[in-house]
User: Fold this.
Amino acid sequence: MLNIFNTEMDFLILCLSTLFTLINPLGIAPIFLAMTEGYSNQDRVTIAKKGVFTGTIILIVFALLGSLIFSFFGITIEAFQIMGGIIFFRSGMHMVDAKVGRTRTTTQEQEEFITANEIAYTPIGVPLVTGPGAITGAMLLSAKTHTSFGFGTLIFSILLVMISVLFIFIGGEKLSQKIGVAGMRIIQRIMGLILMVIAVQFVINGITAVIRHI
Assistant:
């Protein structure tokens, strides 16, 4: 019994450290703030909750059924990387142009917000929070265990990491309030550039992997 406990604790530490590093909530928090610049605090919290919830569900599904899903549809991790890179690049261009956030006061603008709120699902939920790296990591961790305890540990780890992501996102509101609109515009453009670079690297990694398999 003690050996099982020690084994699960080691696996728990492995899962937490791996997923937290791959998702990198401290690194993506400024990108989240830049993407939601111009939204009210309440709206930003809502977007954070929806985005993290979406990312959590996706990560759990791929942790449990990822290999089967990829095999059934003939999807590869490389294809997911390229797709994620394209989405990131598109979002980065809007951020550089300062088109992500704007004050909405009219009825028409409030209606536009309903559509704009979809950024909570993509690109924030996927692939910002749950990207190719996190999905790959969850699938690899899932492959390391074949017991119900192991899968339970993995799911528990996903939930803990995602809760930390949510708190970091929500805590970023105070930072945005101190920085102000001008500061957020600057951060938005800088993060847009960084996001575009990350996007290009995603595509390069995906294409490189495909070439290696040829």
